[in-house]
Amino acid sequence: MPLHPQQRINRFEKNFSAYRLLIVVIISCVLMYQDYQKNYLSALRVYLSASLYPAQYLINLPKNFIQKLNTNFSEREQLLQENKFLKKDNFELRSKIQQVYKLESENKRLYALLDSQPKKDNNYIFADIIAVSPIAEKHQIIINKGSRDDIVVGSAVADSNGILGHIIRDQIFGSEVLLISDREHAIPIEIVRTSLRSIAVGIGNYNELRINTLPTNTDVKKGDVLITSGLGGRYPEGFPVGTVKDVINNPGESFLEISVTPFGNLKTVNEIWVIQPTEGNQ
Amino acid sequence: MNHQLRNLFFIWSMILLSIILMVIPLPDVLDQYRLPWLKMAVIFFSIFNISLIGIISVWFSGLILDIMSGSLMGENALILAVLSYLSYRFRFQIRIYPMWQIMIVVLMLLSLGEFITLWIHGVSGTMFFNIYDWINVGIAVLVWPIFMRVLEKMQSLFLE
What we know:
Chain A is an alpha+beta fold. Chain A has helices at residues 18-37, 42-51, 53-59, 61-72, 76-113; strands at 122-132, 140-143, 156-158, 163-170, 175-179, 186-191, 196-205, 208-211, 225-228, 240-248, 257-262, 271-277. Chain B has eight helices and no strands.
């Protein structure tokens, strides 16, 4: 059959038509807007990431496997040493905890006397890390517990040393955690020595946070310990965040430049716990 | 395997391979030098073998990358669709260029991709200039001749 002049010879033309591009661009813009606002389509993202969870797991398998091998093949001597150290540590912690029980009950009784709300009890869920964001400037990790294990978006995440970040997105079988060192992250803190409240922001460096909002006459010293202040309701009160590494007073500037070393191992985290307020006590 | 199925299998294994290369965990030193493999593959196929992909399939591959890498949903999808369309429109000119001119075209396309990323990040308030993104664009352009030869070789091996 001879081709009609109007008929296109290129049968793949329609795969690349400008209309398709236009439709796709509009859909992408809508998706990006919705994802940014986190409203109607957030469920869509949850299901899509949940369906890609096996792929995510498989891709990160070699790395996790090598880490496991490393621990399995560590030397006997080293293990014995570690065991000894942990036993000692455990003994010390147990003796400390005996006092804590008493203090806690006393604290509760006093709160009751004052007729005010006692502090919330927290619920701890242990989780493993399965992936780290491949984008260098995004300090995000994915953990292996999600809404299937009753994890709520917004809960704080910590390791044995201090706060690491909080959960920003649910993936049903896993969830995404934004670390405190990310440039989009800010955490309300309190300086233990002076109980001064402020906000520490991430600067995209795993070993440093920054406080930019304290005036030059503030009483801050190198080595001061920072804890979460519990303001804003996202992070529970009283968890260790870091120590002040450096206080720089630039002449002419009205605010101090305070750099903070976080306690948590943000770069080399392995096991973490998710801190959630217990139900009924919220 | 029949012809169409074979094509489909080939293109999606290539796309998945490039997605894996973009999200697989690497040692710290290499992590900064992660080349935009998916963009390169999409540009190559939109210029030299348009029978394999279309804008819609490219868009879906970008969506998968977005979800795997935790960026805004639709960001990479949009960029890939635009790059694919542009390479398709100018494919006749580009095909007959000498290699150094193709490299310049690839440089322009990849830079456009980076600019769109910056715009999107600027609108969503998370714009940080990362010098490594641009270094990687440069490296990607330099390895383009090898990349192109490898893909051509693979095409001639897997597709008759």
